[in-house]
Amino acid sequence: MSPERWRQIEEVYHSALRRAPDQRVPFLDGACGEDQELRREVESLLRQGESKTALVDRPAWEAAGELLDTHTMDQASELAGHRISHYEILQKLGEGGMGVVYKARDTRLGRTVAIKVVNAEFTQRFEREARAIAALNHPHICTLYEVGEHEGAPYLVMEYVEGRPLKGPLPAGEALRYSIQICEALAAAHKAGIVHRDLKPDNILLTSEGSVKVLDFGLAKLQPTAKTDAPTLTTMTEQGAIAGTGPYMSPEQAQGEAVDARSDIFSFGAVLYELLSGRRAFRRETMTATLAAVIAQEPPPLKEAPPEVVRIVGKMLAKKRESRYQSTEELLADLRAAATGAALARRRLWLALAAALLLLVAAAVGFDIRGMRTRLAAWMKAP
């Protein structure tokens, strides 16, 4: 999608945003006319609720709920203190363009869960794709327990995860350790034919045990795998509509093109860049500028990491998907090798410091320095 087209979308989007919800439909009728693609893109952004500031400066769930259909929001807000099936709603956790998330108690099993009431229509396809995501069983993926329907609206029952969003800057070794866990989660999803499509720091929680959980496969796309000839299915979003969060989209995703596992790898690269540097790879003042940067501009040089890690991130963020890692398994191998190299470098540094300290002590008490140096050199070379 050209920058000119993005400017047109942004202009109509912000004009619609300034109007009351009940005035937007007639406005779009006149502003879009017969241009259905324009209307679809603007309506997609309105559903996400990412205004010019929200897209760049806030996670989607903080801003998108303000712009949901009034009836949907009123209905969802009434759920606090009520029940959905055998789930007792305890409190609202957050709102987003795709629905409202609640903390709830499973009265049958006596466990705490999270329930997302989705701003979508319950269909057989919705149920089929949700069940495919529920089949994912991995320690670093938030488990989807159940899918159902409440008063015409679909809901997802998920594992309740206590933790905080993973944020940078982090030392390279720590960032690599978490990144390996994220990559393992993505590899498991990709093996099952599932692409996340909304990977960002706010969808990655660091638990009190020090491990990560990848959340919210709500925008996930189910791809055909070697085990099935089923056609590609898209969960909760129309094909060609923009789905995801601007600064973490892949170039093909930002242009409304088809995505595959390599799109997740690009988004993951933006996350890893941020974990290492503490700044976003693609941070601009407007939605149009942000997406234009994702599509055509390189991020500032990453100076906070070893050369091998910089190389890995650069390959993840390649604009052409053919130039990126072609699978998460390939990426995972390089991340593990880099983590091993970083660990060895830290070990050698500590050994060098310890050796220097011993030499100082030996010199102070009159030991045989030359002989000690020979023995320490041999010790430091040991694996």
Could you walk me through the main structural features you see in this protein, from its secondary elements to its overall organization?
The chain is α+β, with helices and mostly antiparallel strands and 383 residues long. The protein has helices at 3-17, 21-32, 36-48, 52-57, 60-63, 70-77, 124-134, 172-191, 251-254, 261-277, 287-296, 307-316, 328-365, 369-381; strands at 83-84, 87-96, 99-106, 111-118, 144-150, 153-159, 163-165, 194-195, 204-207, 212-214, 221-222, 233-234. The chain has a 6-stranded antiparallel β-sheet, with helices on both faces. Strands 7-9-10 form a 3-stranded antiparallel β-sheet. Strand 1 and strand 2 (87-96) form a beta hairpin. The longest helix has 38 residues, at 328-365. 39% of the residues are buried. Mean pLDDT is 80; it is low at 50-76 and 225-241.
